[in-house]
Design brief:
Length: 533
C-alpha cells in the first residue's frame, strides 16, 4: 500500500470532535478523522483511557463500532459516544497442554501458520510504515533484544524510559509470531518522546523518515540500556568510532577530531557506481575554521577513518535532498549496487588495519579449508582422497575419532593454537537487514523491511502486516534505478573468526564486551549451520 500525504476530497476528510463517556470519566472534544479506519480511533481511546482496543466496546448510535469499517456508525460533530471496557489487567488462566491441528485453528491463525516462525507483522496505524520497517530490522539484532529484556525493567517512568519499555514489550510480542500486531503502545511512546513523529498535515498523520526513527530510538536506548560496566549497549553494538583529520591548503595547520556515529553515510553522485564508492565520498569532509596563523577563516579539507568497528554496521543511502526551487525533499533514484558482503577494511585507520591483518588471514585460511573440503567431498571417498582429507593430529591429541560436528566447526574456524580462543572481527560484514523506500519524495511513499532470519537464513519481506519469503537475488535487486523499492538503510553483521585469546587484537573486537561479541558470533553461527530455504 502506497501512502501519500496530499490533498484529499472533502468527503474523505471528515474531521469531527466527539465527547467520550467512559464510566465516571468524560473526555470532551476528542478529534476523530473518519477517513481513517476505526482502529486508529480506538488507538486514541487506548491512549486516553488505557483500555486496550481488543477490550473496547464503543457504542455509536446504538451500534457497536467495528475495527475496520464505520458502517452506519459514522459519528457527527459534537456527538456523545459511550466506551465500555476495563483498563485493569484481566487474569488469564494458564493454557492447557492440548494438541492443536491446523484445521482446528481459527482462519486468522491458519493464514499465518507458514510465517509464524519468522515473527509477526505490524498493522499500519496511519502512515506508520517507517516505524514498522525500522522495528522489524532492529528486532533482527538478537543481542539488542537480549539487552532490552534484561535492562528495560529499570528504564524508569519518564518519556525515554516509557519508550524503551514499550520497545522491549513489542519485541517480546513479536517473538510469539503469528497474526499481525497493532503497535499502539510503542507508537504513543514514540510520539510522546519525539513529537515530530506526531506531525499532521490536513488532519492526517504525516509520513516520516525511517532513518530519523532509527536514530532517535537508538538514542533513547543509549540513555537507558546500559551494560554491566555502565556503558551504553547500543554504542557497543552499533557505535562506529571515527577520527577526522583536516588540513588547510592555505596554511600549514591541521587538526584531528574523534567522534562516534550509528550510521555510515553513502553519498550519491553522478559517477557513484557502488555502495563502497558512496561510503568513501561520505567520509570526505571540508570545514571552514579560523586559522590562527593567517588570522582569518580558511577551508580545511580531509576525511574520516574508522578507528573501531562495531558488531553491527548500518549504512544509510543518502537518497533524499532538499530542493530549493519547490521547497520539497526530493529523492535520488540512481541505481547504487550493494553486496551481500561488505568489507570496511579500506576505510579503517592504519592502526586498525594492522590489527585486522591477522584475523583476516585466519578467516581466509578457514575459507580455503572449507573450499578444499567441499572439493574433496565431491570427489567421493577413496584411498588418495581419504589420505588427503585426513588432518594431521594436533599436539597432545588422543588420536580418537573426531565427531562430525567438531569436523564441521573446524572447517569454518581458524586453527586453535591455544586452549582458549576468542571471537575476533575481520573487518568484513554480511547483510542481514534492509529498509527500502518506494516513491519519489521523502514525505510520501512506502517503507518495507527485508530481514535475513537467524534461524535458517531465509529472507523475509515485512510489508507492514504482510510477510513474504524472498530470495537473496531479489534482495540484491533493491539497488534502485526506478520506481520500485530501493535500499535506504543496510544493516550488516560482523563476520568473526576464532583467534587464540593471547594473540587476538583488542581493537578488533570493536570495543564490545566479550558477552556482546559472543552473542553476535552465536547468531552468525546459527544462520550458517541452518540450510537456507
Amino acid at each position: 500500500m502506497t501512502q501519500t500525504v496530499g490533498k484529499r476530497p472533502a468527503e474523505e476528510m471528515a474531521q469531527v470532535k466527539l465527547n467520550v463517556k467512559w464510566g465516571k470519566e468524560t473526555y470532551s472534544d476528542v478529534e476523530v478523522d473518519t477517513s481513517q479506519s476505526p482502529l486508529v480511533f480506538k488507538s486514541q481511546l487506548f491512549a486516553l483511557t488505557g483500555v486496550p482496543p481488543d477490550r473496547q466496546k464503543v457504542m455509536i448510535k446504538g451500534a457497536l463500532l467495528k475495527d475496520d469499517d464505520w458502517g452506519k456508525a459514522v459519528p457527527k460533530d459534537g456527538m456523545s459516544i459511550m466506551l465500555m471496557g476495563s483498563a485493569e489487567v484481566v487474569p488469564v488462566e494458564a493454557p492447557k497442554n492440548i494438541p492443536k491441528f491446523v484445521e482446528d485453528l481459527p482462519e486468522s491463525e491458519q493464514e499465518h501458520i507458514e510465517t509464524k516462525r519468522f515473527g509477526s507483522g505490524l498493522h499500519n496505524l496511519g502512515n506508520t510504515c517507517y516505524m514498522n520497517s525500522t522495528i522489524q530490522c532492529m528486532f533482527a539484532v538478537q543481542p539488542l533484544r537480549e539487552a532490552l529484556y534484561t535492562k528495560a525493567s529499570g528504564a524508569g517512568g519518564d518519556l525515554t524510559g516509557r519508550l524503551v519499555t514499550a520497545t522491549a514489550e513489542l519485541f517480546k510480542a513479536l517473538e510469539t509470531g503469528g497474526a499481525p500486531l497493532p503497535p499502539y503502545a510503542f507508537l504513543m511512546a514514540l510520539r510522546a518522546k519525539f513529537p515530530q513523529f506526531g506531525q499532521q498535515v490536513q488532519g492526517v498523520y504525516a509520513q516520516q523518515d525511517a532513518e530519523e526513527c532509527w536514530t532517535n530510538v537508538m538514542y533513547a536506548m543509549r540513555e537507558k540500556v546500559k551494560d554491566d560496566d555502565g556503558s551504553p549497549v547500543v554504542d557497543k553494538l552499533f557505535g562506529i568510532r571515527t577520527r577526522l583529520s583536516l588540513k588547510s591548503d592555505e596554511a600549514t595547520e591541521s587538526f584531528t577530531e574523534d567522534g562516534m556515529s550509528y550510521t555510515l553515510k553513502v553519498n550519491i553522485e553522478e559517477k557513484t557506481a557502488h555502495v563502497s564508492e558512496g561510503v568513501a565520498l561520505g567520509l570526505k569532509e571540508e570545514r571552514e575554521r579560523n586559522s590562527s596563523a593567517l588570522g582569518r577563516t580558511v577551508v580545511f579539507r580531509g576525511a574520516m577513518t574508522l578507528t573501531s568497528l562495531p558488531p553491527y554496521l548500518t549504512l544509510q543511502m543518502m537518497r533524499f535532498f532538499f530542493r530549493r526551487d519547490n521547497s520539497q525533499k526530493a529523492k535520488i533514484l540512481k541505481k547504487i549496487p550493494f553486496s551481500i558482503e561488505f568489507d570496511a577494511f579500506e576505510f579503517c585507520s592504519d592502526e586498525l588495519k594492522k590489527e585486522l591483518e591477522a584475523p583476516r588471514a585466519a578467516h581466509k585460511e578457514a575459507q580455503d579449508r572449507e573450499m578444499e573440503a567441499k572439493k574433496l567431498a565431491k570427489k567421493g571417498p577413496g584411498p588418495s582422497t581419504a589420505a588427503a582429507a585426513a588432518p594431521a593430529p594436533a599436539a597432545g591429541s588422543s588420536g580418537a575419532d573426531v565427531d562430525m560436528k567438531d569436523a564441521g566447526e573446524a572447517s569454518t574456524s581458524a586453527p586453535a593454537t591455544s586452549s582458549t580462543s576468542k571471537k575476533t572481527m575481520t573487518g568484513k560484514y554480511e547483510l542481514v537487514g534492509v529498509v527500502t523506500h518506494k516513491g519519489r519524495t521523502a514525505d510520501s511513499g512506502h517503507y518495507v523491511a527485508w530481514v535475513k532470519q537467524p534461524s535458517d537464513g531465509t529472507w523475509v519481506c515485512f510489508d507492514d502486516d504482510k510477510l513474504t519469503i524472498r530470495t537473496e537475488e531479489e534482495v540484491l535487486q533493491l539497488s534502485g534505478g526506478g520506481d520500485w523499492h530501493m535500499a535506504y538503510l543496510l544493516l550488516y553483521r560482523a563476520i568473526m573468526v576464532d583467534m587464540p585469546e593471547a594473540t587476538a587484537p583488542a581493537a578488533a573486537t570493536g570495543g564490545a564486551s566479550d558477552a556482546v561479541v559472543q552473542s553476535v558470533a552465536a547468531a552468525a553461527m546459527e544462520t550458517e549451520s541452518s540450510p537456507a530455504v
